[in-house]
Amino acid sequence: MKTTGKKRTRKSSSKVAKVKSKKTFRSYQKAIGYLFERTDYEKQQRLRYNVTTFNLKRMQKLLSLLGDPHKKIHTVHIGGTKGKGSTATMLAKMLEANDYNVGLYTSPHVVHLHERIMVNSEMISEPQMRDLLNRVYTPVEKLSKTDPPTFFEIMTALAFMFFVDKEVDIAVVETGLGGRLDSTNVIQPQVVGITSLSIDHSQLLGDTIDSIAEEKAGIFKKGVPAITVQQEPAAMQVLKSRAIALNVPLSITGSDIDFSHRFETSREHGPHTRICLTTPTSKFEHLRVPLHGKHQAINCGLALAMLDKLKSIGYEIDNEKAAEGLNNVSLAGRMEMIWYDPRIMIDAAHNAASIKALIH
Questions:
Q1: Using an 8 Å Cβ cutoff, are 289 and 275 in contact?
Q2: Nearest 5°: phi and psi at 262?
Q3: Do residues 58 and 153 touch, judged by C-beta distance below 8 A?
Q4: How many whole angstroms separate alpha carbon 25 and alpha carbon 31?
Q5: What is the mean pLDDT of residues 123-134?
Q6: Spatial contact of 302 and 229, defined as CB atoms under 8 Å apart
Q7: Where is 355: in which H helix or E strand?
Q8: Where are the alpha helices (DSSP H) in 246-281?
Q9: Which DSSP helix (H) or strand (E) runs through 198?
Q10: H or E element in which residue 134 lies
Q11: What global pTM score does this model have?
Q12: Domain spans of the chain?
């Protein structure tokens, strides 16, 4: 694994040892069928949120049997309630534009399962997924005798394995549910991002904004820089307290990071938002936000701030290339107009705050 932010100019000569497994699945259909047989908390209505159900030790055991792939890649970690996938995608695109080999792990998917695991904007293929499931089969079966890994835990492990196979320079990893007990919270990221917080999954994470913030702040790591956006006072207090306790340098867009946005329209781009963001090392002026809505301007500001933080710790970032990468972002299910007469739009809004943002 690289120890600096410099780009790889050629593939590493040292190959990561692969976990050997019998060719259990000769077809993609059988392999994916095995995956879908696993317990999937995303589809369960009644669920207990505790260290038994969401068990990081189980995840760590699985990864250990697979050679700890998560320890062989550089990562950034993005948590929050709203806009995680959008922020992760924008950050990944800007890193790609700067010639980095970039992994992206998001959830849930909109159309196809393979959307969750990408390298340089390309989804994992069916043969690649089948081969990974063949490699993970024996470790999963070994653990299943006492504590079966879940669908999301296996998917997360597959993502880490794939990123090692593809020798990514950096992987942008989005949390699934919560943060503190999330399966992705085994990584040691270089930067952490927290998107807008609001009440969601209240039956699991709590019905107050500060209880939500406690769970989301669970991805903070000692000494690792973190960036967030403007939050409700109670949520911000939790984030700041957690940051102080862990000696986390916490930056806030719109506060110690100068950030502004404005709405405009043009013949070329139609209605859109432009943002300005200034840090001690960079100045981004009047960049067009590729996704619609004020909330996406806030997400874009966070992605830019995270990119700049990577730059400050040694990654080679050209701001003009980053802007070009931003222009290439497109994302299904985010204020996506699929029909104009009558007007039909689809959006991933799934709680009151998201729906309010969509309406406005």
A1: yes
A2: -145, 150
A3: yes
A4: 5
A5: 98
A6: yes
A7: helix 352-359
A8: none
A9: none
A10: helix 126-144
A11: 0.86
A12: 28-359
